[in-house]
Amino acid sequence: MTLRLIDRGRPAITRHQVYVTLREAITTAHLVPGRRLSENELARQLGVSRTPIREALALLREERLVAIVPQLGTFVTRVSPAAVADAAFVREALECSAVRLAAERIDAAALGELQANLAAQEQADAAAFDGLDDDLHRTLCEAGGHPIAWSLAHRANGHLDRIRRLSLPDPEYLREMVDEHHDVVAAVARRDADAAERALRHHLRMVPSLLGALRERHPDYFEQEEAA
Amino acid sequence: MTLRLIDRGRPAITRHQVYVTLREAITTAHLVPGRRLSENELARQLGVSRTPIREALALLREERLVAIVPQLGTFVTRVSPAAVADAAFVREALECSAVRLAAERIDAAALGELQANLAAQEQADAAAFDGLDDDLHRTLCEAGGHPIAWSLAHRANGHLDRIRRLSLPDPEYLREMVDEHHDVVAAVARRDADAAERALRHHLRMVPSLLGALRERHPDYFEQEEAA
DNA sequence: CATTGAGTACTAGTATGCAAGCCGCGCTCG
DNA sequence: CGAGCGCGGCTTGCATACTAGTACTCAATG
User: Strand D: which residues have Cβ below 7 Å from it?
Assistant: First the structure.
């Protein structure tokens, strides 16, 4: 009889919970861009010590969601077109490569998962769509045989997540996203790597295109470039 | 294995120095794969407290150069073909995308930098080549307008760095690498994005091909897959 | 002799204390 | 009245103390 290995390496739960909590707060702009964070204050509010707070903030810094300035403070980064473009570039590069592989080697099980996800998206509201979108892209990356692609893309992705979440309430935009998801999965299903890559690339370029509207609604969220 | 005390110059860089020291030790296999690390022991050897050690190890875990198991220990990860393939995939995706952009928009200054680098490589020994190689790839990514590509690729890259460094003493292999660098830069110089991508892709696939020889020389560095 | 159980010596995770440095308010001096 | 300077309160970085939990040693026991 064979027993499955037990997965250790998650019992460090406090740090992870703090990370999830803060990331959620930032990508929903509950913690507004530009806001100053204090490790001490966060520790008080969350009921933990500074140590797990610091470790969570270090991860968020890697995602460019916070900027830590020694002896000065920690700040929620503002939305910057450059950072969004960087994130979009990374995601395009990684996911498009992954989806090409996925189109070549996806199996029936994964394909079924994708289609179930699409069906769920049809009836999802904005909040539910959020999770389903993540799942779909993750499944696509895993189907390509390199789950690390999603892990990295997701990590480089804080800025895009924030844009997306702040823009999602728009139902027309949501409709478009779901349609594009269908296009990608359809191309993968018929093993057409070129079409899948094209569809995904087009899909991923939607998010940066939301910047204009968001800036109109929340100009204070944006980094102000030096006026000449 | 003895690590030298780190120089505590300016504040707020202790963590970084620890990180650089440990990464160097791991990618050169000075700290051999599979070795168990103790935060306390490292703190003693480097003359700092556990805090910066922990923060450096957290970064190295992101690069999958160490594995941290709570209440058990921290270990230098062994070489695994899967991890190497993952790293190669990420680097290919990111750098090939970047080099396409570079071929379109590179300016004379960056091109000059690339060519100066190539000239230096012609006369470099293995140790010097190491740094020049990093510089060349970084410059290529920056020329594409997304420096973050290199920052991410480099970070996903610990496993490849280790393979490369352990294999570099082979002069024939070094010669090949330099030639391939020439091919990539030449394609970029004549604004041929397709050729540049092809050349770079071919170049990046060299590293994983070294796995076989390395396994012969250092089978103990490798993760042993379940023997039947 | 084999097995089991307690005890010990470690581990990383978390909490807390201390040091160095920046910002701004308010006082002092010109 | 205005400008310069010093002090207090804040920040993060680093060091240390404590907790919870694992693996190993070795003796007691069947």
Answer: A 37-41, 50-51, 54, 68-74; B 11-15, 48-52, 55, 71-72
